[in-house]
């Protein structure tokens, strides 16, 4: 499994090139996100809710990729520091398994950073092709301690409705846009048929339930009602008044 051809200096050079590329791509995508958010805000302001719900997916995807960049940068910095140690060791140092495996995993999913593929080739030479194959595959990545948050950031699937609603709320707050949050919630998070007629009828009213959608700090005006919304995108904490119908399908949560 040990390769005499492994060079810590070559690995460091590749890592530094990778960091430079990540910085360029991060700046590029941050500008894209800023533009996308402006577009979403304008769509909300002009009442084009359906288009806003579609456009906000691009904001979420880019934000996830930016988070992935941050994780990768940390691992690459660690690899630079530990390069000599890895060169002298036949096996992956125990405290480097997550970093190395995560970089391998990302190399096949982050196409705009070609230096990741070069690092994967270096790792294949050092630790064997079987390791690289397993670390890169979804089914076996966890066996090699690939960072779970990184895997979630690089998932190729549409954002869940809760995240779309939370991001729409965040963008509306940022740009001071008034919009009907309750109506948007009823479209994105329709009541489950299993709730029955009584629950469906309750969905037409206003609820005061402390729900999972009301746990992001910071209120804003939505249809004239101050709210604080968050379902995992854009912040933590609690605040505001719940405007979601009690039958919206969101889980009740304890706490003030």
Automatic annotation (TrEMBL):
<dbReference type="GO" id="GO:0015031">
    <property type="term" value="P:protein transport"/>
</dbReference>
<dbReference type="Pfam" id="PF03398">
    <property type="entry name" value="Ist1"/>
</dbReference>
<comment type="similarity">
    <text>Belongs to the IST1 family.</text>
</comment>
<dbReference type="InterPro" id="IPR005061">
    <property type="entry name" value="Ist1"/>
</dbReference>
<dbReference type="InterPro" id="IPR042277">
    <property type="entry name" value="IST1-like"/>
</dbReference>
<protein>
    <recommendedName>
        <fullName>IST1 homolog</fullName>
    </recommendedName>
</protein>
